[in-house]
Amino acid sequence: MDQGASRRRAVDLWKEGYERHMRAFAFANQDCDEQARDELLVAVELYSQSIEVCPTAEAYTFRGWALRSFGKIDEAIEECRRAIEVDPDFGNPYNDIGAYLISRGDLDEAIQWLEKAKSAARYEPRHYPYMNLGRVYESKGMVLKAVEEFEQALTLSQDPVSSESIRRSLAKLRTILN
């Protein structure tokens, strides 16, 4: 298979893995934990097949995200590091590392990764690292910095659900400031 065909096949496998990954979330929201787990396992396998055909930052990042769903934070971080090696301009793995570190309570270490996500050339949805930084600064009691990050997230957000969450966070923080 030539390089172009390999890349297309890898992207197709990644997309199929992503569909299964999203199906897992739908099952989880319906309290169908076993079906969700099974879909995630299939997603991990499809991401792995994609990487075998042609390694992409997307497949590594999303495989990490799926592994995180199984509580494998260190493995998820390692997958994101591989993604960055493949494509340092892809912002998602930087944000994901930051989010995984937040979940472990490593707030100071998370900041550097979230800052890298903010400046990445290729990243959607761009508001996520700002939201995550807002949460970090809020947790650290740095209210003004948290407000700055949430305000920037709001200007970048195209998602009504995220925008509403950001507005609630800002309202709570502004109450603290008043």
Description:
The chain has 178 residues and is mostly helical. The chain has 2 domains: 1-114, Serine Threonine Protein Phosphatase 5, Tetratricopeptide repeat (Alpha Horseshoe); 124-178, Serine Threonine Protein Phosphatase 5, Tetratricopeptide repeat (Alpha Horseshoe). The protein is built from 9 helices and no strands. Helix 6 runs antiparallel to helix 7. The longest helix is centred in the first third of the chain and has 27 residues, at 3-29. The protein is globular. It starts with a helix and ends with a helix. 40% of the residues are buried. The mean pLDDT is 95.
CATH class of the largest domain: Mainly Alpha
Report the principal-axis shape.
globular
Radius of gyration: 17 Å
Strand content: under 5%
Q: How many runs of DSSP E, i.e. beta strands?
A: 0
Instruction: Specify the number of helices.
Output: 9
Low-confidence residue ranges: none
CATH topology of the largest domain: Serine Threonine Protein Phosphatase 5, Tetratricopeptide repeat
Which CATH architecture of the largest domain? Alpha Horseshoe
Distance between the termini: 63 Å
Helical residues, percent: over 70%
By CATH, the superfamily of the largest domain comes out as Tetratricopeptide repeat domain
The assigned structural class equals mainly alpha
Main beta sheet: none
> Averaged pLDDT, please?
95
Count of all domains: 2
Q: What is the chain-wise order of helices and strands?
A: HHHHHHHHH
